[in-house]
Specification:
This protein has one domain: TIM Barrel. The two termini are 24 Å apart. By secondary structure, the chain is an alpha/beta fold. Helix 4 links the parallel strand 3 and strand 4. It has 12 helices and 13 strands.
Length: 339
C-alpha cells in the first residue's frame, strides 16, 4: 500500500534515478529494522535445489543490485534467494544514458545498461559486508572491451574472485546489451566454455572445501535447436542449473508503443509466454538433476505457478517489483503456499 502511494513520484523520475533512490531508501529502512514491514508477513515454503536449501522458491533476478550493495535490504523483503550482478572483472560504465525505459501500458521495461559494474574487487568488498546468510547467487559477465575469443578469461577471473562468497554462480552469456556476447551460446563456442568453467569450479571446490553450483543464463530468443544444444552441453559438462530467461530483443506484443523502438532487452509481462515456453522446452531436454530457474513476466502467484508447472524448480522476478512494489514477494510466496 505504501509503494502505491510513492510510485507516482518515482515514475516522475528518470528510471535509473528512481532505481537508485528506491534501493538507498530500502537500505535505510533495513538499517532501521522496518524494511520487512513493507513486504508483509513472511511464509515459509522450503525447497531443496542444486543441493542448497531455500526458505521459499521465489528469488530476485540479477540486474537489480549489480554491485551487491543492497543485499541486506533486499533480503528483508522475503525472497527465498537473491541473485546479484552482473559483475565484470574490471570496472566499466556500461552504455551511455538514457538506457532504461518504462512501458507502463505493458508493465514492461527496456534496458540497454550493458553490464555497468564497479568491478569484481569492489563487488567482493560489498558482498563481504553483508549480514545476510541466505543463498546469494552471483551473476558474472565479461567486460565490453574483451573480445569473445578471450571471454573465458574474464569469466574465470570473476569465478575465482566471487567463489568464496557465492551460494551459486551464473555465467551470463545472454545479455543483448554487450556486443556479440550471445554468440557464446552457440554450440561450437559453448562446449569448451562450459567445460573450462566446470573444471575451474571443481578446482576451487577442492581449494575452498565446498562445491558451489554453476548456472548458465540463456536468451529467450534461441530457437528450438539452440535450446536443445544448450541442454545437451549443460548436461554433458556438469552444469547445475539453467536460468531461463534473460531479456528479449523481440517487440512482440508492444510494437504499437512508441518506447518499444528503443534498443535493448525487453522484460516484464510481454516476456512471460516466451520465457515459459523456453522453460518447458528445457525441461523436456534436460535430466532432472539439472535445475531450471524460471524468470520473465512473473507478477503474481499464478505466473510463478505457471513457470513451476512448466518445469522450473525456482523462479525469479525483477520488473514486476517496479510496477507492484515490495509486497509482491510475500504475495507470491503466500499464493504458492496456499495452492
Amino acid at each position: 500500500m505504501l509503494y502505491r502511494a510513492v510510485r507516482p513520484f518515482l515514475f516522475a523520475l528518470d528510471p535509473e534515478t528512481a532505481h537508485s533512490l528506491t534501493l538507498r531508501s530500502l537500505d535505510c529502512l533495513e538499517r532501521l529494522g522496518v524494511a520487512a514491514i513493507a513486504a508483509g508477513p513472511a511464509t515459509r515454503l522450503p525447497v531443496r535445489v542444486m543441493g542448497l536449501e531455500f526458505p521459499n522458491p521465489v528469488g530476485l533476478a540479477a540486474g537489480l543490485d549489480k554491485d551487491g550493495e543492497y543485499i541486506d535490504g533486499l533480503a528483508a523483503l522475503g525472497f527465498g534467494f537473491l541473485e546479484v550482478g552482473a559483475v565484470t572483472p574490471r570496472p566499466q560504465a556500461g552504455n551511455p544514458a538514457p538506457r532504461v525505459f518504462r512501458l507502463p501500458e505493458a508493465e514492461a521495461l527496456i534496458n540497454r545498461l550493458g553490464f555497468n559494474s564497479r568491478g569484481a574487487d569492489t563487488f567482493v568488498r560489498n558482498i563481504r559486508r553483508s549480514r545476510h546468510r541466505g543463498v546469494v547467487g552471483v551473476n558474472i559477465g565479461r567486460n565490453a572491451d574483451t573480445p569473445n575469443e578471450r571471454a573465458l578469461e574474464d569469466y574465470l577471473e570473476c569465478l575465482n574472485k566471487v567463489y568464496p562468497h557465492a551460494g551459486f554462480v551464473t555465467a551470463n552469456v545472454s545479455s543483448p546489451n554487450t556486443k556479440n556476447l550471445r554468440d557464446l551460446q552457440r554450440a561450437e563456442e559453448l562446449d569448451g566454455f562450459l567445460a573450462a568453467l566446470a573444471s575451474e569450479r571443481d578446482r576451487l571446490a577442492l581449494q575452498h572445501g565446498r562445491r558451489v553450483p554453476l548456472a548458465m543464463k540463456i536468451s529467450p530468443d534461441l530457437d528450438d535447436a539452440g535450446i536443445e544444444a544448450v541442454a545437451d552441453r549443460v548436461a554433458a559438462r556438469g552444469i547445475d542449473a539453467v536460468i531461463a530467461t534473460n531479456t528479449t530483443v523481440s517487440r512482440q506484443g508492444v510494437e504499437h508503443l512508441a518506447t518499444a523502438r528503443e534498443q535493448g532487452g525487453l522484460s516484464g509481462a510481454p516476456l512471460k509466454a516466451r520465457s515459459t515456453a523456453v522453460v518447458a522446452r528445457l525441461r523436456r531436454a534436460l535430466p532432472s538433476s539439472v535445475a531450471i530457474i524460471g524468470v520473465g513476466g512473473i507478477a503474481s502467484a499464478a505466473d510463478a505457478r505457471e513457470k513451476l508447472d512448466a518445469g522450473a524448480d525456482l523462479v525469479q522476478l525483477y520488473t514486476a517489483l517496479v510496477y507492484r512494489g515490495p509486497e509482491l514477494v510475500g504475495e507470491i510466496v503466500r499464493g504458492l503456499a496456499a495452492r
